[in-house]
Specification:
Layout (H helix, E strand, L loop, with lengths): L14 H7 L2 H7 L4 E2 L3 E2 L16 E4 L4 E4 L10 H9 L3 H9 L33 H6 L1 H4 L2 H12 L8 E2 L2 H8 L4 H13 L3 E4 L12 E4 L4 H50 L8 H33 L1
Antiparallel strand pairs: 1-2, 2-3, 3-4, 5-7, 6-7
């Protein structure tokens, strides 16, 4: 990882969210395990295997987001945090911080226990408001949404039923509260958000003359959406790194061009006027003082001769 890229690490990482939604297969690849597809990998504890684990013994249970080595782990399995701790030989806090540097992790909600408090390296506080749209913004996906798509999401959150987590609202209501003037824009925005796995639409049956309002459920914890957010986040970081490198190269090129122009100008002046030597301010001052003294002495001599001539005449 390039140190020039500043990674935003939340002050209170949500450990439960990490264990549930950060894919353990991707974590295994990040710690440089030999992963075969999405179902198995080689064990890092090769001393426990007679043949150096030539036949991979680690199996990934994708539904539970855990893994298990059928030689080393006799009961249960281990989480993605346990995997980082085991492979990198680090403590729990270091493992969580390591994951936060490579995957998008939200902050734990206020009042929710997070275990032992520890100091986290951070560049500024994030997730203080506890907004559910935090990951969309931090990943960069929010900036890629259209104005209509961005306007719909806060409205759906504001009118969501706290018991069922479902928002029932008509197109007319979305147009009024989101500030969108066309039902066609609403339909296109809703369809795009559903394709991105941001929300799920529960359409009405359509019975009767007037159709009932559709219901919308935000699916911000959908695995496909999380995978898309992580991909967008890494792509944004790569673009930032390239932009910084380009700006640094352009700045160095400008400075080099200025230095070469100054050196060329000095060489040209020296070649055209080889007898002229640049004098410092001190040298110029001394020359001017010597000229003043010489003129003053000459003036005194002439004045003395004139007075002598007058005395002789008188």
């Amino acid at each position: 990882m390039n140190a020039a890229i500043q990674v935003l690490i939340p002050e209170r990482p949500d450990v439960a969210w990490i264990k549930k939604y950060v894919p353990i297969v991707d974590v295994a690849r990040e710690v440089r395990l030999q992963v075969f597809g999405r179902t198995k990998a080689g064990c890092w504890r090769i001393e426990n295997h007679r043949n150096g684990d030539a036949h991979p013994s680690v199996r990934f249970l994708l539904r539970k987001n855990i893994a298990r080595c059928f030689v080393c782990d006799q009961i249960g399995g281990f989480s993605n945090i346990d995997l980082v701790m085991g492979v990198l030989n680090c403590d729990f806090s270091s493992a969580v911080s390591w994951i936060c540097e490579r995957f998008l992790v939200p902050s734990a909600r206020r009042g929710r226990p997070i275990g032992q408090r520890s100091s986290w390296s951070q560049y500024y506080r994030v997730g203080v408001s506890g907004s559910e749209l935090e990951l969309l913004v931090r990943s960069g996906l929010w900036g890629q949404l259209s104005p209509s798509q961005r306007a719909i999401l806060p409205v759906l959150l504001a009118f969501r039923n706290p018991d069922t987590a479902v928002t029932t609202i008509s197109y007319r209501g979305l147009m009024r509260f989101a500030g969108i003037g066309s039902p066609k824009s609403i339909a296109g925005a809703v369809w795009r958000l559903q394709a991105l796995h941001v929300l799920k639409i529960e359409r009405s049956s359509g019975a009767g003359v007037v159709r009932d309002c559709s219901s919308y459920r935000l699916t911000l914890d959908d695995p496909e959406l999380i995978r898309l957010l992580n991909a967008t986040y890494h792509r944004q970081r790569h673009e930032i790194e390239c932009e910084r490198a380009f700006r640094s190269e352009a700045r160095n090129s400008r400075e080099k061009a200025i230095r070469e122009a100054v050196e060329l100008d000095l060489r040209t002046n020296t070649k055209n006027n080889p007898e002229e030597q640049p004098q410092s301010c001190t040298g110029e001052l001394l020359c001017s003082l010597s000229e003043v003294r010489a003129n003053k002495s000459l003036h005194l001599v002439k004045r003395g001769e004139e007075e002598s001539q007058k005395a002789g005449i008188l």
